[in-house]
Amino acid sequence: MAKAAEHQKPNVSIDVVLFTIRGGRLHVLIARRAADARVFPGKFALPGGYVHVDEDQDLMATVRRVLKQKVGLTAPYLEQLATFGGAYRDPDGWSIAIAYYGVVPESYVEPVLGQDVRLVPVDELPPLPFDHPEIVSTGVKRLRGKSGYSSLPAFLLPETFTLNELQEVYEQVMGVRLEKPTFRRKVEAQGFVEAIPGEMRGGAHRPAQLYRRVGETLREFDQVF
Amino acid sequence: MAKAAEHQKPNVSIDVVLFTIRGGRLHVLIARRAADARVFPGKFALPGGYVHVDEDQDLMATVRRVLKQKVGLTAPYLEQLATFGGAYRDPDGWSIAIAYYGVVPESYVEPVLGQDVRLVPVDELPPLPFDHPEIVSTGVKRLRGKSGYSSLPAFLLPETFTLNELQEVYEQVMGVRLEKPTFRRKVEAQGFVEAIPGEMRGGAHRPAQLYRRVGETLREFDQVF
DNA sequence: TTAATAGTGTCTCTAAGACATTATGTG
DNA sequence: CACATAATGTCTTAGAGACACTATTAA
Question: Which of B51, B52, B176 best tests the A interface by mutation, with the highest count of A CBs <10 A?
Answer without folding.
Answer: B51
